[in-house]
Amino acid sequence: MKIIKLILLILPLFCFSQEEKIKSLDINLTNYEYPFPVQFLELSNQRQYLKMAYMDIKPANYNNKNIVLLHGKNFNGAYWETTIKALTKEGFRVIVPDQIGFGKSSKPDNFQYTFQQFAENTKKLLDHLGIAKTAILGHSMGGMLASRFTLMYPETTEKLVLENPIGLEDWKLVVPYKPVDWWYESELKQNYEGIKKYQMENYYDGKWNADYQKWAELGAGWTTAPNYSIVAWNSALMYDMIFTQPVLYEFKNIKSPTLLIIGTRDKTAIGKPLVSEQIRKTMGNYAELGKKTQKAIPNSKLVEVPNTGHLPHIESFDQFIKPLIVFLKQ
C-alpha cells in the first residue's frame, strides 16, 4: 500500500518534468540566440512603428545569387540553420526574415495580417539590402507568402521554391468558419505536451528525436511567458489570415520558374478537428496535392520526398537540399 502511495506521489513529477525543463522565452526571443547575427529593419505599418528581424548571410565565395527563406506559422528563421549553411557553402547569399508577429520581430497588439502586407515588408527588406533579384523559398505558411510575393513582384522573383506549402486547398469550402476569438482561446491552451503531440502526429508520423525536440521546445518556450497572451492573439489573427486568404486560385498566374519539394507523407490541414471523419480523410493529402499544384503552376517541377512529412528540410535534409541546389544553379 505504501509503495502504491509513493508511486502516486511521484507520477505527477514525471508528467511535468519535461514541461519544467522548457526555457521560458520572452515574446521577442531576446533570450534565445539565433544561429547567425540578427539585424532589424524599422517599418511603418498600419500607423505603427515595428521592427522586422532578419539574418543576412553573405559568404566569402558569393556567387552573385540570392535566396530568401520564408518560415512557416509554427516556426521562425532559426529553423533554417542547416539550410543556410548548405546554401552559403555553395556561394548563395541567404536572407532570412522573421515576419511581423514571429520570432524576434515585433508583436503588435492590433494588426490586420495579410499576405500582401507580409510580401510588401519583405520587399522593403530587399530594397533596404539593395537586392533587385532573388530566389524565394517558402515553407508551410511561408509557401503561401512566397506565392503572394511572386505574384506581386514577378520582376524581383528569379525563381520560386515551395516546400510543403499549406493552402494548396481551400479549407473554407469544407471547414466551418471560427472567429479570431475562438482561435485565441485555443492558442491560450498551448503547452509543450500539446505542441509535441501535434508535431509528432502531423509532421513526423509518430517519430521523435533531438532535432524535432529542439523546435518544439522553442515554440513551447513562449507559452510559459507572463505575456504569452500577446503571442496567442497574434497567432489567432494569423489563423484567420491563412483561412480566409487562399492563393491557390492564382497559381496559374505565377511566371517564375518554380520547384515544388513535397514530403508525400504530410497530412497537414487547418480545421481537421472541426469536420467529420469522412471529410477529414480528404484534407491535407500532399501526395495528391503536390501533383495537382504542379499542373496548376506553369513552368513548374515537382520533387517528391517519400516517407517524409511536413518538414523535409528537418526530417530528410539530403533529399531536400540536393534538388534545391540543382534548381538554383540552373
UniProtKB/TrEMBL annotation:
Every AB hydrolase-1 domain range: 66-316
InterPro entries to which the protein is assigned, alphabetical: AB_hydrolase_1 (IPR000073), AB_hydrolase_fold (IPR029058), AB_hydrolase_sf (IPR050266)
Organism from which the protein derives: Flavobacterium johnsoniae
Keywords noted in UniProt: Hydrolase
GO cellular component: a single term: membrane
Gene Ontology MF: a single term: monoacylglycerol lipase activity
Top-level lineage group: Bacteria
Protein name stated in the entry: Alpha/beta hydrolase
GO annotation, biological process: acylglycerol catabolic process
One Pfam family recorded for the sequence: Abhydrolase_1
